[in-house]
Amino acid sequence: MTSKELTQQIFKKKSFLCVGLDTDLDRIPTYLLSEEDPVFSFNKAIIDATHKYCVAYKPNIAFYEAIGVDGWKALKKTVDYLHSEYPEIYTIADAKRGDIGNTSRMYAKAFFEDLGFDSVTVAPYMGKDSVEPFLEFTNKHTILLALTSNEGAYDFQTLQTDNEELYKQVIKTSKGWNNSENLMYVVGATKAEYLADIRKIIPENFLLVPGVGAQGGSLEEVCKYGITKNVGLLVNSSRKIIYASDSSNFAEIAGAKAEALQIQMAQELEKL
Ligand SMILES: O=c1ccn([C@@H]2O[C@H](COP(=O)(O)O)[C@@H](O)[C@H]2O)c(=O)[nH]1
Asked: How far is CA 126 from the centre of its chain?
């Protein structure tokens, strides 16, 4: 999916919500554990109940890798289900990959070609040759970690290097890489006050903003500093939606949580 198509979906659905599928066997309703594929059953129920209120889903790959082959199968089934049942939905593999060039190319093939995701998160630490293999794919996005939502972001990302924070250098430098039009950036909702500065460097690029909900980030603050006339935001919430209840109507309750965020987002879009 192109950025333009994603923007069209955002205005159509009045939502820039991304639902995080951080599916953990220890947290899903116990009655699902007797199903043949409990992870997929949980994801399918969540997707069916929330798809009206969001434009994207973001499975965090760690949760699937942690349970081995079964996890990979459930991940593939989830992405295939999304593409077949809800082709308008944008998919993000939150994998945080990046390696020397030929290895990155294999990661890119895995997430873009084999699994068929629209985008993948990538760590910028290994530099240009580790990121460009992802950028070569047409109509696919590479979402570079810029300023992450966790406390440890202050360990390196905000350090001054050449009189400028490292995360700003990551954004500025990556803008000069081949096929940089395929870049999006991760900025944590817990760092909303940095968004005004970030928008001076990248006024148009999409930002993936995790941290609303369980991590305490504010949607209002994110919009105040980060929204553009084309929106340019995908705001993710995972645990607060998918684990809102562990009862038999967990999906319905997840749907209500997603709808509440969508209503807030519609109000923000009205202001544009
Ligand atoms: O800076 C980052 C980058 C990625 N994440 C991921 O997003 C979700 C957030 O989950 P919540 O339950 O809504 O807190 C999760 O998959 C993280 O690994 C992030 O939080 N911050």
From this structure: 21
pTM of the predicted model as reported, rounded to 2 decimal places: 0.98
Are 50 and 258 in contact by the 8 Å Cβ rule? The answer is: yes
Task: Dump pLDDT digits (tens) for 151-174.
Answer: 999 999 999 998 999 999 999 999
59/143 Cα distance (integer angstroms):
14
Please report the atom of ligand 1 found closest to the CA of residue 239.
12
Q: ipTM, 2 decimals? A: 0.99
Domain boundaries defined on the chain: 3-270
Separation CA 186–CA 32 (nearest Å)? 33
The answer to whether 122 and 144 are in contact (CB under 8 A) is yes
Give the homologous superfamily in CATH for domain 3-270. Answer: Aldolase class I (3.20.20.70)
Active-site annotation holder among 14, 96, 224, 240: 96
| Amino acid letter, residue 227 | I
Q: 14 with 269: CB under 8 angstroms? A: yes
Q: What does the pLDDT read at residue 149?
A: 98
Reply yes or no on whether 96 is catalytic. yes
